[in-house]
């Protein structure tokens, strides 16, 4: 690689980034259309559709824990990732037939495919480097950027494909994207294997008992509880925010027609502009000796979540008074603030979980984090299911309140978190 960054990292990283790009494009294309497909095409009530969508997303994250165990113990990373990509391709193909009868078989294929693919590709990035290699953080940062590029492009493409070519075409393109991911994996995975560093992540102790006293229960519960509530707030993009974009906003922006589902691609694209600003801010603070603790930065992110939905409360009140469609600029502003929250909560939350857990149980800690995401997705669907029962201002107020409760949960756990981090640092030195 000629670039400085490329020269420092193995080719395998870029292979995995390419695979993830195609998978996220396909996954978010489906995610942006699923609620509309259930509601408009299959005739499912909005409340039932949001609840089913939330349950589906929760099942994906819950099954990822099982998929990770299968990959580690029996299939291996390579075969699990490739088999997962193949099953995802089949799932999108079945969905493209556009039949209510085949909805649940397609969902089953997608769930099993995600269960094998998600944990495998994430762990494959880490296996490219020794455990203490400083390049590992940079690698995951690049992986996260690519993740968001795919997440941003998928909904935009899905909205236009559905509007101009129909449901089958949109789901077919998702299937083709997964076939592209599979092809990259099949023909280029040798680079991942050849350049991988020694597997230094193997546990030196088999103990992952969650009841052992070395687990700082209060600290972990604070991180998990606040993260679960934030996930319920953040994952409204494919739930109530999609319904708001469809029913209450103008379908044009800067003079261009914009399908409602395409607006859901904004967070993924906004990451590209917001992440450098956050990194620059953190760098400046560090040089001045004012680097905030991880839990403080997570708390600030949760407060941004409160602000994001207060913006929509104002927009909803204006829309209710005027009974006219509002500009999508309100939704863009909400997504921008919510993206700041995402970039502060999720990466730091994962990092904090691994720092709080015993060194022999970091995999168990990440399993807990995946269960948390599943619970958050389920709760997101439950809240959004009240779309037709509550006023829009009330619904967005509830979401702002949930984000505020998340702040309080984290604040209550602040002292146990500080104590646990100090204890772990002392133990590592010893």
Quick description:
Helices cover 78% and strands 1% of the residues. With 430 residues, it is mainly alpha-helical.
Structural class call reads: mainly alpha
- CATH 4th-level superfamily of the largest domain: MFS general substrate transporter like domains
- Beta content comes to under 5%
Q: Based on CA inertia axes, which overall geometry fits? A: globular
CATH level-3 fold name of the largest domain: Growth Hormone, Chain: A
Q: Unreliable segments (pLDDT under 50, ≥5 consecutive)?
A: 1-7, 194-213
Name the average pLDDT: 81
Number of DSSP helical runs = 15
Roughly how many Å is the radius of gyration?
21 Å
The largest beta-sheet arranges its strands as 1-2
Can you tell me the number of structural domains? 2
Q: Please trace the helix and strand order, writing H or E for each element.
A: HHHHHHHHHEEHHHHHH
Describe the structure.
The protein has 430 residues and is mostly helical. It folds into 2 domains: 10-198, MFS general substrate transporter like domains (Growth Hormone, Chain: A, Up-down Bundle), CATH 1.20.1250.20; 214-430, Growth Hormone, Chain: A. The protein is built from 15 helices and 2 strands. It has a two-stranded antiparallel sheet. α2 packs antiparallel against α7 and α4 packs antiparallel against α5 (103-126). The two termini are 41 Å apart. The model is unreliable at 1-7 and 194-213 (pLDDT under 50).
